[in-house]
Structures are given as structure tokens and as C-alpha cells.
């Protein structure tokens, strides 16, 4: 199936380059766009593509702080007959997600600690699995997709998306990446003149460790899935999201290998601000790969 281009609306015009210290995100093992609204059109599109209805049993896999769980509850209603499972390997994430909901809504969700790779042992067969902004974090992708396949009823569907693939940079965004990295290196040298990058240090999100769109689709077919939809949503990402990515430790280690994480993150955050300011940007586009797969 060929990829369709979906544009998710105009960029928010509000960003100038003046995020204050209080809003600086702390270093994390994942990026957290969940409090940013720029990605909601892409999420809503994915939910339209997979098809959501109140009687379905479903899983929000890698639920994080609960953005997708909230969207599912909004669509189905809290009193829907289908069961909803929110699954994440980090208990702290489940707690945050649960606390972000009204008590009645939280009680309507089954909160489950676990990984994609074990999903078939964690939940009974379900109609839908939503796996948003997390598949690139799965270390055993073959096992992960197999476990999701096994956890679906026949004609059950998996919807996933990712902004971390080999194809996530639209060509017209390259100039931003060049400016961002140049400004980040300048900021790093200003604050820490003696620090050196170590090219031999691990780079977990460098291009070679990411999967391409075609690789994901091939793996899905090998697992037994039928590809129902395969789109690239071009999402306009505001400065806040680049500052957020700059606090994502895997990304930070990949871009500035061997540099102490806090220093590297601060330099990347400052680099993003300076690049936006110098280039007069309000947003930068990024490709979000959105897929719906069905178990025959
Ligand atoms: C960037 S957050 C996405 C959260 C949420 N789905 C969203 O879109 O806002 C990624 C989440 O994936 C979880 N995660 C990491 N490895 C995972 C795995 N192997 N299986 C399932 N979830 C995983 C992390 O704990 C984190 O909560």
C-alpha cells in the first residue's frame, strides 16, 4: 500500500524562543509529548483509521502518562462495555496516567505493569491494541510484534505510530537539524570548553539503530499481520517539542555520545532555542509513521 501524506494543520504561531527554566524538562528515558497538543490531530487520525467502538476490548500499550488512554475513554465513554487495559513497564507511568483521570474513569481502566514483548501473557484476547510513540523503544521487535499478534482476537487490530524511524526527517527540515546541531555544539563549548565527544560511545537512536517504514511493514507481514493502513503524517512540531526531545536520554546519548548527559541535554535545549530564533521558525515538520495492522 502506498503512503498517503496527511498534513495535520497549521503550526501554532505562539513560539518565540523564550522558554523559562521552570519549563525545562528533566532528563528521561523517553520523550514525553503527552502534555503537548501538536500531535493530537495525528493521534485522532490513527484512532479513525483503526476504528474504535464502545464494545471493543482494547489495550493502550506503552501508555506512559495516559494521553492515549484519555483519548480512548473520550471516544468510547467511561461506561462502555468493552474492557480497557493500560500497559506500561514503568509502574510510575501507570500511576501518573491513573492520577490524570477522574476517579471513575481511572477505575474503568485495568492498569497492568509489563512490556510489549509479554503482552500475550498479560491480557486476555482483545479487539484493539494502540501502541503510540513507543514501538521504537521495544528492544525485541520480532518478539514484541508476535506477542501483540497473539494477544489479538481474529480480525483484531494493532495501531501504532512512531516519530523515530529512519525516515522521520522530511528533506525540507534538514536545514533545521544542521542549525540545531551547530548551535548546540557552540553552547556546549561555551559552557564546557574542554568537553569532548566520544564517537565510540553507544548511540541508541542513531540512524543505523532505527527501523525504516519498510522494515516495520516487512516485519509486520512476516508476523502474519495484514496491513490495513500505512500513512505518513507530517506533524508540525513547535519549539517545546524539540526542547522535550533534548531531554530524552537515548536521543541525547546518540547525538552527543560520551558527553555528560546533563551538559549535553542543556546544550541541545539551548541549541534548539537558538536555531528557532535565528531561522525565525514557529515549527519544524517531522514524519510520523502511522500504521494499522490486522490479525486475519
Ligand atoms: C514516549 S512514551 C509514550 C506514551 C504514550 N503512549 C503517548 O503516546 O503519550 C513511551 C512509553 O513506552 C514505554 N515503553 C518502553 N519500553 C516499552 C516496551 N518494551 N513495551 C511497552 N512499552 C514500553 C515507556 O515506559 C513509556 O511510558
Write the SSE topology.
Elements: E1 4-7, H1 40-50, E2 58-61, H2 67-76, E3 84-88, H3 91-99, H4 103-107, E4 109-113, H5 119-122, E5 126-132, H6 141-151, E6 152-162, H7 174-191, H8 213-223, E7 226-237, H9 239-245, H10 249-255, H11 261-279, E8 284-294
Parallel strand pairs: 1-7, 2-3, 2-5, 3-4, 5-6
Antiparallel strand pairs: 6-8, 7-8
Helix pairs in contact: 7-11, 9-11
- What fraction strand? 15-25%
Largest sheet: 8 strands, mixed
Which molecules are bound besides the chains?
A: S-adenosylmethionine
Beginning-to-end CA distance, first to last residue: 17 Å
Strand order of the largest sheet: 1-7-8-6-5-2-3-4
- State the shape: globular
Succession of helices and strands:
EHEHEHHEHEHEHHEHHHE
Total beta-strand segments = 8
Integer-rounded radius of gyration = 19 Å
What's the domain count? 1
CATH topology: Rossmann fold
Q: Could you report the average pLDDT, rounded to the nearest whole number?
A: 90
Please tell me the CATH architecture by its name.
3-Layer(aba) Sandwich
Flag low-confidence runs: 1-17
Summarize this, please?
The chain has eleven helices and eight strands. The protein is α/β, with parallel strands linked by helices and 296 residues long.
Please tell me about this protein's structure.
The chain is α/β, with parallel strands linked by helices. The protein is built from 11 helices and 8 strands. The protein has one domain (4-294): Vaccinia Virus protein VP39 (Rossmann fold, 3-Layer(aba) Sandwich). The protein has helices at 40-50, 67-76, 91-99, 103-107, 119-122, 141-151, 174-191, 213-223, 239-245, 249-255, 261-279, and strands at residues 4-7, 58-61, 84-88, 109-113, 126-132, 152-162, 226-237, 284-294. An 8-stranded mixed sheet has the order 1-7-8-6-5-2-3-4, sandwiched between helices. Helix 9 (239-245) packs antiparallel against helix 11 (261-279). The radius of gyration is 19 Å and the shape is globular. The protein binds S-adenosylmethionine. S-adenosylmethionine is lined by residues 30-32, 34, 61-64, 67-68, 88-90, 93, 115-117, 132-134, 137-138.
